[in-house]
Design goal:
The chain has 156 residues and is an alpha+beta fold. The chain is built from four helices and nine strands. The chain has a four-stranded antiparallel β-sheet with strand order 3-5-6-7, with helices on both faces. Strands 4-8-9 form a three-stranded antiparallel β-sheet. It has a two-stranded antiparallel ribbon with strand order 1-2. A hairpin with a 5-residue loop joins strand 8 and strand 9. It is globular and about 45 Å long.
Length: 156
């Protein structure tokens, strides 16, 4: 698996051949705990790409619940680590937050390993983003065999 690290940012850009290893390795190789396809066709991030990354990590234009109702036109991805507090126990856990980025720069975010697995399958079939033309992705809620709720991302 070939990995390139732009010196200035430390973000990892990885070829998506073996998706399970790819998902685990992407954070190991990224100094900042961020993996993105923004400016992946370039050797280093542009100023606009950096601004988009900062905005995507700080919030999103569309919440996960909206993705179940309407597909989101997706061109790039950003995945980064966040700390989540369990409302019942107060326990803090580290989770991967996935941000879908549209051609217009709008963002939609979700914290779900199922969503990341769905994106891994999509990348196996459609290739690694930047997707041109952009893909229409929809969030699908599923129940596990143990009764837990999880999400998957599918192409519409």
């Amino acid at each position: 698996m070939e990995t390139q690290k732009p010196e200035e940012t430390g973000l990892a850009v990885t070829e998506a051949n073996n998706m399970e290893a790819f998902i685990d390795e992407m954070f190991t190789n990224a100094k900042l705990g961020v993996w993105t396809t923004i400016d992946s066709e370039k050797t280093e991030l542009t100023l606009e790409g950096k601004k988009l990354i900062i905005r995507a990590m700080g919030g999103s234009d569309i919440k996960a619940a909206s993705l179940k109702e309407k597909a989101f036109l997706t061109q790039d991805l950003l995945i980064h680590m966040v700390s989540i507090v369990d409302d019942k126990t107060g326990e803090i856990s580290e989770q991967k937050r996935t941000v879908l980025i549209g051609p217009d720069g709008r963002t939609a975010a979700i914290c779900s390993n199922g969503a990341i697995a769905g994106l891994a399958r999509i990348m196996q079939l459609f290739g690694k983003p930047t997707w041109k033309p952009a893909l229409r992705l929809r969030l699908k809620e599923q129940e596990t065999r143990h009764g837990f709720r999880t999400y998957n991302i599918e192409v519409e």
